[in-house]
């Protein structure tokens, strides 16, 4: 399991995370400290004009980064997700939420709050209505898989998709698994981001 490395310049944020974590961690204070680290699951606090270079450096090294912000907002979160961070969270999130976010990232998934996920879905839905529906991603999927993706883009859960398509949740999970494989997406969020990018180049 990857060690957690904390880059949290603000003392109150650092204290919050140190109290919330139930596992060993390393505190990193500068780029000089970073040079000595092989690989970590990074928790990095975003402060404009202060930490941008450090976070960009982590992403350039393909390090997994959970970005935290004192005042998280959709535009900031979406911007960093597109740059490659693996999660975006309030600096003072509850310990239980922190645990879920770290677990998701360790499993290869992406973690964001509900508001950002809804903003992504809304953005793709708008693009869907404005562009030709015969997009390249559709050509890779069966009709039922395409129907499943359209339901995901509407923000529906597996249970809601199952009810709408008159199939079992197990079948929905199977469809989602095949969709992620065919479109080379890690999880639902990554799927939404990929489809959004496809629309931009079509």
Any low-confidence stretches, pLDDT <50, length ≥5?
none
**Could you say what the CATH architecture of the largest domain is?**
3-Layer(aba) Sandwich
- Total strand segments: 5
Largest sheet entry: 5 strands, parallel
Using only C-alpha atoms, the radius of gyration works out to: 18 Å
Helix/strand/pairing class, anyone? Answer: alpha/beta
Would you tell me the overall average pLDDT?
83
Full CATH superfamily name of the largest domain: Response regulator
SSE string, helices as H and strands as E: EHEHEHEHEHHHHHHH
Taken as a percent bin, the fraction of beta residues is 5-15%
As for the CATH topology of the largest domain, it is Rossmann fold
The tally of structural domains comes to 2
Determine the fraction of residues in helical runs and give it as a percent range: 55-70%
Cα distance spanning the termini: 40 Å
User: Which CATH first-tier class of the largest domain would you pick?
Assistant: Alpha Beta
Number of helices: 11
Strand order of the largest sheet: 2-1-3-4-5
**Overall outline:** elongated
């Amino acid at each position: 399991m990857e060690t957690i490395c904390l880059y949290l310049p603000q003392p109150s944020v650092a204290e919050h995370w140190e109290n919330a974590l139930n596992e060993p961690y390393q505190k990193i204070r500068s780029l000089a400290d970073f040079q000595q680290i092989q690989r970590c699951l990074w928790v990095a606090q975003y402060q404009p004009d202060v930490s941008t270079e450090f976070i960009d450096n982590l992403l350039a090294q393909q390090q997994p980064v959970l970005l935290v912000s004192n005042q998280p907002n959709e535009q900031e979160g979406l911007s960093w997700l597109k740059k490659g961070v693996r999660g975006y969270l309030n600096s003072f999130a509850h310990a239980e939420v922190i645990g879920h976010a770290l677990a998701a990232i360790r499993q290869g998934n992406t973690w964001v709050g509900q508001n950002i996920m809804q903003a992504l879905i809304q953005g793709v839905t708008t693009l869907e209505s404005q562009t030709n529906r015969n997009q390249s991603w559709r050509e890779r999927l069966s009709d039922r898989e395409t129907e499943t993706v359209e339901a995901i883009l509407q923000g529906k859960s597996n249970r809601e998709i199952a009810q709408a398509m008159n199939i079992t949740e197990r079948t929905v999970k199977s469809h989602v698994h095949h969709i992620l494989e065919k479109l080379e997406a890690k999880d639902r969020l990554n799927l939404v981001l990929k489809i959004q990018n496809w629309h931009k180049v079509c």
